[in-house]
Specification:
With 525 residues, the chain is an alpha+beta fold. It is 58% helix and 7% strand. It has 14 helices and seven strands. It has a five-stranded antiparallel sheet with strand order 4-3-7-6-5, covered by helices on one side. A two-stranded antiparallel ribbon has the order 1-2. Strand 6 and strand 7 form a beta hairpin. The longest helix has 59 residues, at 322-380. The chain starts with a helix and ends in a 28-residue tail after the last strand. Residues 1-86 are annotated as: Disordered. It holds the Pfam family Strabismus. It is found in: Cell membrane. The chain crosses the membrane at residues 111-133, 153-172, 184-204, 224-244.
Length: 525
Amino acid sequence: MSAAMDTESTYSGYSHYSGHSKKAHRQGRDRHKSPRSKDGSRSEKSVTIQTPPAEPLLGNDASRAEEGQDDNWGETTTAITGTSEHSISQEDIARISKDLEDSVGLDCKRYLGLTVAAVLGLLVFLTPIAFILLPQILWRDDLEPCGTVCEGLFISVAFKLLILLIGTWALFFRQPKADLPRVFVFRALLLVLIFLFVFSYWLFYGVRILDSKDTNYQGIVQYAVSLVDALLFIHYLAIVLLELRQLHPVFTVKVVRSTDGESRYYSLGHLSIQRAALVVLENYYRDFTVYNPALLTASKSRAAKHMAGLKVYNVDGPGNNAAGQSRAMIAAAARRRDSSHNELYYEEADHERRVKKRRARLVVAVEEAFTHIKRLQAEEQQKAPGEMMDPREAAQAIFPSMARALQKYLRTTRQQQYHSMESILQHLSFCITNNMTPKAFLERYLNPGPTLQYDRDRWFSKQWTLVSEEAVTSGLQDGVVFVLKCLDFSLVVNVKKIPFIKLSEEFIDPKSHKFVLRLQSETSV
């Protein structure tokens, strides 16, 4: 529409000022055509996509009604026209399609491993039953009578298989938490061991019992019982290798976020590098504050401002060489660097002052709003039950009184991109429902919380890349360093072994604590 208005203004100007030369008209026409040609070339290279609106934390149906909302929810809504800064090129589309194909491959690999484990487990549980039933089906008349002994063995096999089934379900059949780059070595070894064990039992059963048609049915049942006992011992070995071995702390890892330097320490046991990386990521989402790239732009803008403030004027004319200019630039930069710490000090002090001031305004506004809520609750207790206001309506009623103060505080602390208006209303209604204090309501906004506190669409990284010089299936060792990379930052993990501690005992004689107090008979007056 703007292009059409420009064209109409061009035509009207041309009819009014018909005395201009053709050259001026051609220049004006080229000038009005240049933006359209620029947009046309842009549309051929990329596809422009609008910035997605802020979504609430809980993601219910009420959030879809707020899709037109932007971050300026505390002020009058204004319409902004222009080209979005987010675009996807053909290369990005190809990369996204490749990532989808890789994810499909990972899903196939995961389901293949689960299928193999399920088939092997089914074979393990059916094998003892088959050992007992096959003689009854094939040569029942030739079997020797077993009696009470076999019946007791049947009960033993049944309960042992039930215990083994429950233990296998609890240990192996779990919802996977992540897709690891390599197989879990101990689990693969256990599967191979179980397969070889069952195969050897079937081989012996086929050669010594099926071929010869052994008539000693009690010995056949005891053979099946021995198989179940051995499977229970293998299950115990799996518990030791998969669960108990990693509980004893052996290493201390330091996790540092590469962008802001935030760090945490964790104690780990005997784990492979890939499983240690998984434990680090699980603790990262719980312990680290949410990554906020807006906090990192202050230092960059300060450095750019310092460099932009340097100007060199050539007063001797264009004939002077550039050596003098470079020396002047270096000297000015040195003087600027000497005074930069003062600017940084006063800038941080001013920022802290503004944060404290807006925090105080926010606290006062929220306390007044909650006082108004208490007054409304006291008034509605006198009304009929059908006329009482629900927590959602109460939150919408008091939110405008605190919206501007909250928005200014979030902008000052650069947290506005993590809190939408709908999420704040939901949190406010939650606090009203549970009769929480203003301090409990403000806890989410005054202190940056852990990563899991916020909407997963804003922080969740679907894929992490593990970078390690050692093989990811090898165990942790002293001095090992590996990196976990995502799109915006990386986590650097340094492994240190807990040192061997030697304690010595020192015996203290109980008589050494005794002393004698001697009082003089004569005292001074």
